[in-house]
Amino acid sequence: MVRDGKIVGTITSGNYGHHLGGAIGLGYVPCRGESEADVLGSAYEIEIAGTRVKAEASLAPMYDPKSERVRA
Asked: In 3D, which of 7, 2, 24, 6 has the Cα closest to residue 15?
């Protein structure tokens, strides 16, 4: 995982997110002492087979914690 041009970690898992309609990857970004705005304001990339692909960070869960989608 690359943050603002610097390698900061690895993706721990990935899959296709059917609800999101695209690929998702889970990883850890070291951010001790930073605000949420700092973390979300950075530019992220993921390297796949030697090619860097833009990525978007999210602090929100990628599932429906209140089961609102099920009840709809």
From this structure: 24
